[in-house]
Write a structure and sequence with these properties.
By secondary structure, the protein is an all-alpha fold. It has a domain at 22-61. It has three helices and no strands. The chain has helices at residues 2-11, 24-39, 50-58. The longest helix has 16 residues, at 24-39.
């Protein structure tokens, strides 16, 4: 709610919508994340046990 007020003060505009809009900064961040997903970079597997977690962080790259 506070961010909406800050945005209103900056832009002096009010938008009424059923769907929330992302900020340009968030859209840019998500764009980088989506590119990483396509390139299969910066992804890790699902770890479901303590042993898997330990093995994941102790393996040599």
């Amino acid at each position: 709610m506070y961010t909406y007020l800050k945005q209103f003060i900056r832009s002096k505009e009010v938008y009424l919508s059923a769907a929330p809009q992302m900020s340009p900064a968030l859209e840019q961040l998500l764009g980088r994340v989506e590119k990483d997903i396509v390139k299969r970079r910066n992804l890790s597997t699902v770890l479901s046990s303590r042993r898997e977690l330990n093995n994941h962080f102790t393996q040599k790259f």
